Amino acid sequence: MSSTEQGTSSAAPAEPTTAPESAAAPEVPESFYYVHGKDKVVHKVSAGALQHSALIHGMISNLGYTEEQAKANPFPFENIDGDILQMVVDWCNQHKGKPTPPEDTNLPKQKEKLFDLVLAVNYLEIKELLTYCCKQVAMMVKGKSPEEIREIWMIPTDAEDEAAEKEAKKRAGKEAAGETAAAAGDAK
Amino acid sequence: MAGWSDLSVDLKKNVVEKLDLMGRQSLRCTSHADRSIVDDTDFHISRVRLSISKSGYLIVVHTRIDDWLRVEILNRPNGGAIINKSQNSWNPEDVVTKELEEGTPEFWTILLLHNFFDYGTTKIDAVEFEIEGGTDAPKGVIFFFAFSDFQTLETEHLKSRNLKNASKHNKSVKAQKVRQDTKKAPRHEKCVKA
């Protein structure tokens, strides 16, 4: 993790401690941006690596941030777990300016992380990584029976689905009744 | 911790696109919601081969060069059918065999064909029929290819010495070779018409 820096930040974003370690310094200095996830850990990512994410790339081009502004205002991704964002940042750094290989063996194999990664990657609009992740998810159930798939992917049965739907309806009905009662009380 | 249920329909479709034929079939059986997602997701099959002989039926589905499924539906001596399934392997040890006491091989063949291909989202490049001499193509199979929803570019008869016999049954079903205009973008069309 050479080009990714971490630091804790609460209200104010963490200050990056070192300059980027680029062995072969390009003629034009590379600009860096900062992102943080749910855990508020700030990751420093080069603009080249962020090209993979259509969302962040769009934000950068629309906001027109300078490096100082970017440092002061890291992009917040509160819906993405810190470790998942770290994985995404690592992947973007690894594949910076490189053609993406047909297979990626570095993706997590654990289903919990993989589904979180799929959601994060979809949110960040990283097309190539999304393709890899979806392929990995599909590989999880290769040659498995319906029962095994249901277990691996934690798919609820139709009966469970119906029960959950009924419960949700009941809850919504109760909430609506409570609201109308409160509104009537206010009117009185 | 997210799971399959947290994925949007588009994401689920993205995953389903990467499943093979049996993976899709298994996922279809997990829940109604997933069944409709699988049925709504495009599936491309390079070639389907249906061989009909006195001993039974053989369905070979090629999705890619290295990805194929072979299902043999044979007559069972005391009625019923024996189904042999193998996937991407010619090793006899990898063949899964199931004996079914009920139904005829024709019934199970049509049921399998229906489950595998009878969706508007299934696009088959070529369907090949191989009918052993002296064997008539059963009406049920002909009707399946006439009225099912899959789309195909090409339908061919292979080595069918009794093509005339098959065509007698097949009067309403014209197996045509549809050659795509090279200038036009390839378009999957149903070429077996009533």
Automatic annotation (TrEMBL), chain A:
Residues 1-25, 160-188 are annotated as: Disordered. Residues 8-25, 178-188 have a biased composition (Low complexity). The keyword Protease does not apply. GO terms for biological process: protein ubiquitination; ubiquitin-dependent protein catabolic process. Signal peptide: none annotated. Pathway: Protein modification; protein ubiquitination. The keyword DNA-binding does not apply. InterPro entries: SKP1 (IPR016897), SKP1-like (IPR001232), SKP1-like_dim_sf (IPR036296), SKP1/BTB/POZ_sf (IPR011333), Skp1_comp_dimer (IPR016072), Skp1_comp_POZ (IPR016073). Residues 127-170 form the SKP1 component dimerisation domain. Gene3D superfamilies: Potassium Channel Kv1.1, Chain A. Probable essential component of SCF (SKP1-CUL1-F-box protein) E3 ubiquitin-protein ligase complexes, which mediate the ubiquitination and subsequent proteasomal degradation of target proteins. Regulates cell proliferation during embryonic and larval development. This is Skp1-related protein. It comes from Caenorhabditis nigoni. The gene is Cnig_chr_III.g8742.
UniProtKB/TrEMBL annotation, chain B:
Residues 164-177 have a biased composition (Basic residues). The lineage of its organism: Eukaryota, Metazoa, Ecdysozoa, Nematoda, Chromadorea. Residues 164-194 are annotated as: Disordered. InterPro entries: F-box_dom (IPR001810). Residues 178-194 have a biased composition (Basic and acidic residues). This is F-box domain-containing protein. It comes from the Eukaryota. It holds the Pfam family F-box. Residues 4-45 form the F-box domain.
